[in-house]
Structures are given as structure tokens and as C-alpha cells.
Amino acid sequence: MPAIPDEHVVRVLRPFVAATGPVLRGLRDADPFRLGRLAQRRALELQASDGRAPEPAPTSRIGRLRRALRTVRARVLDRLATSKLPGTPRWQAMSPEERDQWWVSRVGRFTSVVASIPGIGGALARRLPVSDILGLGAQGLVVCAIASEHGMDGRDQQVRLLASVLFGRDVDPRKHGDPHHADVEREAGELTGTVGTEREEHGRLGALASAVWRMGRTLWGLQGELDRRPQGNRFWRLLANLPVVGALASYRSERSGLKRAARSAARWVAREQR
Questions:
Q1: How many Å apart are CA 42 and CA 241, to the nearest integer?
Q2: Which residues contact 17 (CB under 8 A, 6 or more apart)?
Q3: pLDDT tens digit sequence for 71-116
Q4: Residue 177 buriedness (CB in 10 A; 0-12 / 13-18 / 19+)
Q5: Among 72, 75, 19, 1, which Cα is nearest to 210's?
Q6: Which residues contact 251 (CB under 8 A, 6 or more apart)?
Q7: Are 103 and 84 in contact (CB under 8 A)?
Q8: pTM for this structure?
Q9: I need a surface site. Which of 34, 155, 169, 171 has the fewest CB within 10 A?
Q10: Within 13 Å of residue 39, how many CA atoms lie on the same side as its CB?
Q11: d(CA 226, CA 4)
Q12: Distance between CA 26 and CA 211 in Å, rounded?
């Protein structure tokens, strides 16, 4: 099969990169149990109470019970306030490398849930390998997230990074048009769908799942380059071909490949920033 021209690789990757912004924000902020909001609230409570005189000890049984409940609540929220959740003081203090690992975990777990949704891709999903498509989309998202955490936000910079990490290609997007062309914005909007809109607020996880599926399916169009993407452990890849245990092995293989993609992206960014 003849090599895919650089121009085509850039044309596929640009809308993907443009779409990662709202999708990554959605994955970062998705908080179905509102743990992040509770953690932020507790951090504000601690700031407000700093220097304030302690309350006098209650004398009645009901007063002591209420105080005990408040103490338990405060301890739970204290744990949340020091957890690694976006918006918490702990998140602000994390190094870019620690955030890289958070993204690997966040995206990997999310795509494993998406892969378990029956018919996520409709009729097309029954003809294509769902785990591979979602795994490819996850790798692309994590690579772009790592670039952003290290201050590399330019679209064409991230296109170069994706081409290198996922497909082993050294491309120069500057030779192939405008990264903010109207066609790029239109295709990116088709990939993200309702993510980031008012409609999405009532079905955020579903909108994100659909967006990740479409983004992975877009990258799947670069058929001649797919064998170059970071692969999981050979043992798990072989085991994935077996019945029954194949699903678990496929998941483990994609998680391993995701970690490899993250390490390669971090090394690439470090070289570029020297």
C-alpha cells in the first residue's frame, strides 16, 4: 500500500486537534457525584475559618450529636479538598507530570466504560473493532492533553506531535494550509457534536462518549498508518483473540498502549521545549 501523503495526514489530524479542547474540558469537568464542587467548597470553608476562635463545646446531647456529624462531614470534605481533582488546591499544586498521569487514568477509564456501551457506533460498530477505535481516540486525546499541560497549545504543534507519536510521521503542517480554516472548524464541530452546549448539560457523559467514538473513527481512516501506533503488551494482544477472556485482554492491551503513547508524548514535548 502506498504511503499516505503528509497533506492527508494533516487534513485528518487538524479537526481532531481542534475538537480535543471541548472534549478534554468535558472529561476534566465531568463530576457526576459533584466531588470536585464539594472539595472546592471545603477549601473555601477552611480559608474562611482560618484564625476564627473555636466554638464552645455543646452541653446538650443533641448539640454533641450535631457537632459529631459536623466533624465527620468536615473530615470527609478535608479528604476531598486534598484529592487530585481539577479545581482543588491539590490539583493546582500538581506538577505537569502528575497531571499527565491523571489524564492517562481519566481517559483510560472513561473509554473502557464507553466500550461497554452496547451499539455505541450503531451498525458501523458491528463491522469495526470497537476497542481499537476507542483506543486510538483515547491515545489522541491523552497526547493532546499532555501537550496542553506542558504549555504546547498551538494546533499545528499538536498535529506534529500526534503524527509523530501515533504514526511515526514527521510532518510540517505549515506547508498545508491554515489550521483555523473554516473547513477545519466545521469538521471539528461535527466531531464534538453537543459537547459544551446547553443540550449537553443534560447528557454530558453520553455526548462525550459519542464524541470520543467519532474522533477515534476519524483517525481510523488513516488505515495505512495504524500499525505504527503505540501497542499494548504482546501477551495481552495475543490473549485478546480468544473468546471470553478477549474483552478483558483487549482492555488491558489498550491501557498499556495508552501509557506508552503518554510516555512518548512527554518525551517529544520535552525535546521540543529544550
A1: 48
A2: 144, 155, 158, 159, 162, 179
A3: 776 676 666 555 566 666 677 778 888 889 889 988 888 887 776 5
A4: middle
A5: 19
A6: 112, 115, 131
A7: no
A8: 0.76
A9: 34
A10: 19
A11: 11
A12: 10
- The residue behind cell 451498525 is 123
Residue with cell 457523559: 205
What residue type is 20 in one-letter code?
Answer: T
HSE (CB half, 13 Å, CA atoms) of 61? 0
Domain ranges in the chain are 6-30+94-272, 37-81
Provide CB contacts within 8 A for 242, sequence distance 6+. 249
Between the alpha carbon of residue 220 and those of residues 88, 132, 208, 217, 273, the distances in Å are 36, 9, 18, 5, 30
Residue 65 cell numbers, joined: 450529636
Residue type, 29: D
Euclidean distance between CA atoms 267 and 161, whole angstroms: 10
Q: What is the tens place of the pLDDT at every residue in 14-43?
A: 999 999 999 998 888 765 445 555 666 666
